[in-house]
Amino acid sequence: MNLSILEGTISVALVGRIDRTTCSGLIKSLPLQFQKPISGDIVIDFSRTTRFDEYGVLVLLEIQRLAGKYGKSVSLVNAEETVSKVLQMTGFDRIHNQHATEKPRTPNAILRLGVFMIQVVQNTQSVITFLGNLIILAWHVLRHPKSLRYDDMVLYMRTTGVDALPIVGLISLLLGLIMAFMSSLQLAQFGANVFVASLVALAMVSELGPIMTAIVIAGRSGSAYAAEIATMGISEEIDALKTMGFDPVLFLALPRMTASMLMIPILTLFSDVFAIAGGLTIGVTMLDLTPVTYMSQTLKALRLFDVVWGMLKSVVFAFLISWVGCLRGFQAKGGASAVGQAATSSVVTSIFLIILFDSIFAVVRSYL
Fold first, then answer.
1. Are 194 and 289 contacting, i.e. CB atoms less than 8 angstroms apart?
2. Is 34 exposed, middle or buried (0-12, 13-18, 19+ CB in 10 A)?
3. Fewer Cβ atoms within 10 Å of its own Cβ: the N or the C terminal residue of the chain?
4. Span 88-107, pLDDT tens digits
5. What is d(CA 344, CA 349) in angstroms, rounded to the nearest whole number?
């Protein structure tokens, strides 16, 4: 590419091959060629161009972009028939005219509000469609149990439940330690150390055990569900499933959701046990309680209703986590960034719904 200035006009001669083999280097070198402010309009000369293809149009658009920064126009001269055909096929004239005549428009508040409302309606429609599809397919699986992919379900039971047990157990153990230690500072003033066991057991079994387990699984498995399905959507694997006659929701979502709803309640039970073990450690080492006394007080404080209530909450949380993870995965559109957005949105939405439904459970329990 040769640049020359003649009578206030900058002539850019495209020499040789302007195609996929050379356009990358040309585009990289253009900002260096136009470092100084452009004083005149640009004329692109094709008289010495030996080959020009669709990639060469990218070079023209980059020159046009650089010229637009200084308010200058771009024109083409000596374009042969082959060059004209490529420009016509790629719609360069239309793009060129748009760039020349249109100025970037900043959307006003009303337009942004309208776009936001359209996105809300589309998102609501997507949520309702996905939920309805799930209900229909769940009924189909109940009538035809063999239609569920049990091998995949077992795999997700391992990744969601067994593999998550160490982190859930560790967090619950530490949480039990902290609760017992902090509550002992207050209860010791009244000589009521033994009630530390009651506090830890009731708080973990009915409230903190289900919610902490759900939050850990939302960050660990819910985001993984969203990322996996989003990746399959972007790589057109979901379209391939549809082409082959498979229902993607039945194929991808139901095994994950079934595995989550089976394993998260079991994880919650382990979380309760580890938290009580943490409280027991503090009770024995710092409060001079015997293990028998601590466990006796724990069993005395707990009722079967508390355990069942915590399990019921964990089943609902499991449904929300897996449902949101799969939904965000199916909603992902675009490139690699959509996978990250789907995973992030899955975690944020899941945690919000967990807190919301935990509040609803608290209100319902107040009437029981």
1. yes
2. buried
3. C
4. 777 777 766 665 555 556 77
5. 9
